[in-house]
Recover the amino acids of this structure.
């Protein structure tokens, strides 16, 4: 597994409506896409800085992963996403290296990406997403 760059940083927010204008002025750029990912029970908003994105995540279900995260920890950085050539291959390699996996194969994420997560227990408390086009 050799990530090529940081694809995005995921930030859990209570409300996209409130946070989008804040991030637009903070980053000096417009949100270029809002997308609901039903499977993840989130609505996402994207900003591009160089080749790295900021992904704001609003929960659509209090029982979903972001809903539970907000309840437990409040707003803040939720995950770090590393770009890899092929998500399923990278997950397999990470597993071979003894990293605990949340996903053993890739699934469809926002922005047309194939994504998979590594368990924070194996990455010193950081939820790491691997993603590829
Ligand atoms: Zn993500």
């Amino acid at each position: 597994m050799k990530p090529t760059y940081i694809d995005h940083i995921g930030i859990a927010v209570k409300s996209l409506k409130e946070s989008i204008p804040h991030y637009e002025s903070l980053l000096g750029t417009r949100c270029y896409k809002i997308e609901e990912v039903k499977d993840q029970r989130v609505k996402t908003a994207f900003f591009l800085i160089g080749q790295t994105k900021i992904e704001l995540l609003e929960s659509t279900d209090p029982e979903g992963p972001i809903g539970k995260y907000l309840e437990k920890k409040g707003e803040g950085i939720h995950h770090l996403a590393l770009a890899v050539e092929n998500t399923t291959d990278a997950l397999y390699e990470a597993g071979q290296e003894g990293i605990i996996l949340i996903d053993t194969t890739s699934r469809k994420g926002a922005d047309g990406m194939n994504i998979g997560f590594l368990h924070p227990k194996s990455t010193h408390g950081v939820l790491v997403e691997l993603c590829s086009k």
About this structure: The chain has a mean pLDDT of 95. The domain at 5-132 is CATH 3.10.180.10 (2,3-Dihydroxybiphenyl 1,2-Dioxygenase; domain 1). The pocket of zinc ion is lined by residues 8, 10, 55, 79, 81, 129 (CB under 6 Å).
